Amino acid sequence: MEERIILPAAEMPDKWYNPLPDLPTPLAPPLDPQTRQPISPEQLGVIFPNALIEQEMSAESWIAIPQPVMDVYRLWRPTPLVRARNLEKAIGAKCKIYYKDESVSPAGSHKPNTSVPQAYYNKMEGVRRLSTETGAGQWGTALSFACSQFGMDCTVYMVKVSYEMKPYRQILIRNYGATIHPSPSPATRTGAAMLEKDPGCKGSLGLAISEAVEDAATHDDTKYTLGSVLNHVLIHQTIVGLETQKQLAAIGVKPDYLVGCVGGGSNFAGLVLPFLKNKLAGEKIKFVASEPKACPTLTRGQYRYDYGDMARLTPLMKMHTLGHSFMPAPIHAGGLRYHGDAPILCNLMEEGLIDARAYFQTECFDAAQLFLRTQGFLPAPETSHAIKAAIEVAKEAGPDETVVFLYSGHGMLDLASYDAYLQGKLTNFELPQEDIDSALKDCPDIP
Ligand SMILES: *Cc1c(COP(=O)(O)O)cnc(C)c1O
User: Fold this and answer.
1) How far is the CA of 128 from the centre of ligand 1 (A)?
2) So what's the pLDDT on residue 1?
3) pLDDT digits (tens, 9 = 90+) for 397-443
4) Number of helices and strands (H, E) in the chain?
5) Which of 66, 106, 328, 335 is surrounded by the fewest CB atoms within 10 Å?
6) Is pLDDT above 70 for 393?
7) What's the gap in Å between 370 CA and the centre of ligand 1?
């Protein structure tokens, strides 16, 4: 009876929640890397539309979701909340486990929750084309889907090594109608210069960001988009937690643990932020973040100002960081290999409101396979980190307690990773302290 909780379409939330007014301590502002003064909205206006800059700094607790965005959301929303009863049995859990299923979106992950409004607000301000970078290809897929919905052009710079090793995502992106360049590409000055220096260069995320930003900054009709980390992205993702609240209320259940994986932090934040007020009001509810031991930003990073990218093009943000020059090991959860985390999430971490845990990739793939063999669905490698943490938490939880985790995406385009797993080819990486210390030396000194 309460196995799959589906909200009636009419009950889909029509506002996003903005946590900024409710943070116990104000968010440290992003700084101009040259002057080290708080960045002005005018500076951000070169690459972002005004509506998103307003959201980035908004003091309003609730932001109405525009009707055209609601209409696109309805292609897959509201998403189901599912009781993982077979998984409970397999691990001998005494508590209940539910998962919020964001894998049912067109792109197969939570990312369209923000790509759709980002495309919409740009379109409303006369922008004709969006540019972005993508690593493993999930954000590129989500943005090309959103652009196809609003009749916009989309240019994706995809790290060349992923473009060659993961052909399926770029095929999907091209079928949505986007233009995709393996990065480094001759399409930008940054890319062309790199190719001249090193024709065999396989690219990096930092380089792809530089290309996408240059594209937006040098074309009047083009703006840049980012799929995680920024405040407006987290705000859009709160639709996940707001729906979950309604679904749990419908069956009279209060969650004791909310669990998610953290790359830049947007899916996890989208689940937990709507419950922030409950936690601050003293309700017993734990926010559990799960990350790879190969990229342990929340568990071992330093809380300080750092650049968002390797090329030092972005504003400085105060966050838990492993250093912008940090090169994470090539783990299969490509979406969790970011050196920093969303400033909102890091702010809450500093307040002691988040319990962060780190896991090896093989134990996460073990958890993913158990999920596949019990619940039947194949999770994305990123999502396997949430499943692993949910299982560990469920083993600690009491009989009357409830664990809810966020199923951020499916793994149907990640089968090569599962093949490597079956063949015993996955390596576990634990980051040596010397590597963290040396990458942190490159961070700017800001008190
Ligand atoms: C991108 C991605 C993530 C990590 O990004 P966040 O911003 O931390 O949410 C996690 N899971 C999936 C399936 C992704 O595509």
Assistant:
1) 27
2) 52
3) 999 999 999 999 999 999 999 999 999 999 998 888 998 999 899 89
4) 19, 15
5) 66
6) yes
7) 21
228 lines ligand 1 (CB under 6 A): yes
Q: Stretch 104-116: mean pLDDT, rounded? A: 98
**Which atom number of ligand 1 is nearest to the Cα of residue 383?**
11
CA proximity to 259, closest of 235, 241, 281:
241
Of 305, 311, 317, 293, the closest CA to residue 443 belongs to: 305
* CA separation for the pair 216, 48 (Å, rounded): 9
Q: How far is the CA of 337 from the centre of ligand 1 (A)?
A: 10
Which amino acid, one-letter code, is at 46?
A: V
pLDDT tens for each residue of 293-330: 999 999 999 999 999 887 788 899 999 999 988 877 78
Determine the pLDDT at residue 309: 82
Regarding the beta carbon of 383 and ligand 1, being less than 6 Å apart is answered yes
Retrieve residue 382's tokens. 């990123």
pLDDT attached to residue 325: 83
Q: Does the beta carbon of 380 sit less than 6 angstroms from any atom of ligand 1?
A: yes
- From the CA of 333, how far away is ligand 1's center (Å)? 9
Cβ–ligand 1 distance for 290 under 6 Å, the answer no
Backbone angles phi, psi at 83, to 5 degrees: -80, 125
Which tokens sit at 447?
A: 């008190």
